[in-house]
Specification:
The protein is of the alpha+beta class. The chain has two domains: 223 residues, Rossmann fold, CATH 3.40.50.300; 119 residues, RNA polymerase II/Efflux pump adaptor protein, barrel-sandwich hybrid domain (OB fold (Dihydrolipoamide Acetyltransferase, E2P)), CATH 2.40.50.100. The protein is 25% helix and 34% strand. It is built from eleven helices and 20 strands. Helix 7 links the parallel strand 7 and strand 8. The radius of gyration is 24 Å and the shape is globular. The model has no long low-confidence stretch (mean pLDDT 92).
Length: 360
């Protein structure tokens, strides 16, 4: 895919905060999710890319300077661009009216169907719509303009948690059916993994890593990225030894040596809570859980939505967090004080440096 948008060393200073320098390419047809905590600079990235914030560096559209290209862009901000004095239908057509264009009948009908607009298109004001309905209307307003690039800034932030996946599936479907190029800003890590074909992690004004979801999940490039996605189960490393294709990691402060399948070096080693295995004493061990097995005691058990989170402490004093389906936890009657055996699977452990690496 050719690059639709390219940022080269984009640098923004606003007060004491600095964003960048950021360099990235957005191929045509890609869904890029930009994720980071509040205050990381995600919205500022959108605004500076659009030219709303003074910035140094280059912004290129199809290889040409952004200022001369006049790209067709739709920007859906956190504050939905709906006008209370206009009817629902007038709001729907507002973007086209600003361009003095007529709606494409085929696209209009498709959006009416996919976004379920028909039941409330005849209403006299948007104030009678729920937040979810307003979100769909604003999205349809943007898409009717047939943008070459759709920018979304925290589109699900005001929705109830159980409503968010519904919007995610709609965005996924529209991206696929309309061939959209999307840059989607969010602080929701699950949203980024659900939608992003690639994910850009922005922390403290820096682009820490840009990678497909699978790579980001398995190999966070820096300690900051690892802490953002899974702050549990990160331990400092005393030494890393590679011999005969095996990687042996000695933890700092604990008499623990771990086998790691992923080659590399780093100052920290980690594993995501859902990758830690709780071994069943009545079942034979699979090959992947033969190493890095530790007896442990359950210190804390918390029930989440469909899951259980356990904090266990091994006999060597290492605190390990697990997230498991409820069934095995309930079936075994686990509770604080229960004795268990856990496995830090070698294939699931990753080494990370403290400073940015090649994922930047």
């Amino acid at each position: 895919m050719s690059a639709l948008l390219r940022l080269e060393q984009l640098l923004v200073r606003r007060g004491e905060f600095t964003l960048g320098p950021v360099s990235l390419e957005l191929p045509q047809g890609e869904y890029l999710a930009v994720v980071g905590p509040s205050g990381a600079g995600k919205t500022l990235l959108l605004e500076s890319m659009l030219g709303w914030q003074p910035a140094s560096g280059k912004r290129l559209w199809r290889g040409q300077p952004w200022e001369r290209s006049r790209p067709r862009v739709a920007y859906l901000s956190q504050h939905l661009p709906l006008l209370p004095h206009l009817s629902v239908e007038q709001n729907l057509l507002f973007g086209l009216a600003c361009r003095r264009e007529l709606p494409d009948p085929t696209l209009m009908e498709h959006l009416r169907e996919v976004l379920g607009l028909a039941p409330y298109l005849g209403r006299a004001t948007v104030s009678t719509l729920s937040r979810g309905e307003q979100q769909r209307l604003a999205l349809a307003q943007a898409l009717l303009t047939r943008p070459e690039l759709l920018l979304l800034d925290e589109p699900s932030t005001a929705l109830d948690p159980h409503r968010k996946p519904e919007l995610w599936r709609l965005l996924q479907r529209l991206h696929r059916e309309l061939g959209l190029t999307v840059l989607h800003v969010t602080h929701d890590r699950q949203e980024a993994f659900f939608l992003g074909q690639r994910i850009a992690v922005v922390l403290g004004g820096k682009l820490e890593q840009l990678a497909p979801p699978g790579e980001l999940y398995r190999r966070p490039a820096t300690l900051a990225v690892a802490r953002f996605f899974a702050p549990e189960n990160l331990w400092p490393v005393a030494s890393v030894v590679q011999e005969n294709g095996q990687v042996r990691v000695q933890l700092a402060g604990y008499p623990v040596t771990l086998s790691v399948e992923n080659p590399g070096t780093g100052q920290w080693v980690g594993i995501r809570p859902e990758e830690v295995a709780l071994l069943d004493p009545h079942r034979p061990l699979r090959q992947q859980v033969q190493e890095n097995r530790f007896p442990a005691s359950v210190e804390e058990l918390v029930f989440l939505d469909g899951q259980a989170q356990l904090a266990v402490r091994t006999s060597a004093g290492l605190l390990v967090t697990l997230r498991l389906p409820l069934c095995p936890v309930l079936d075994r009657g686990l509770a604080p004080g229960s004795q268990v055996e856990v496995c830090l699977k070698p294939r699931s452990l990753y080494l990370v440096p403290e400073t940015p690496g090649s994922g930047r």
